[in-house]
Design a protein that fits this description.
The chain is mainly α. The protein has helices spanning 5-29, 33-39, 54-64, 68-79, 83-101, and strands spanning 107-108, 111-115, 118-119. The two termini are 21 Å apart. 25% of the residues are buried.
Length: 126
Amino acid sequence: MAATGGVRLLLRAEGLVVLGAALAAYAQFGAGWGVFALWLLVPDLSMLGYLAGPRVGAALYNAAHSYIGPVALLVLGVLAALPWAVAGGLIWCAHIGLDRALGYGLKYAAGFGATHLGRIGRADPW
């Protein structure tokens, strides 16, 4: 079941907050905006999983669009003093936040358009 109404709006607002926080932290971190632009859309390569079908596609997309990976990368970067990991985690968080703010949620195996934030894409004409 997809979120609707005020819950959907709140989830999208959370995405906007994550995007803003990640951008602010990245600006303070100083890794360079060229690097940011280069890596921002990399998580969307997970959509290639849909070539193997909607179940595989949804699993790969969700793995790349959950906050588990980028937060783990941030923790690794901070604890091990790895600047590339901190930068990568912030860029990844920014990507997910942007997607959520735009209404692109985690996917259900029913197809790419079925997300936890509601249906995306064109409405079924039938």
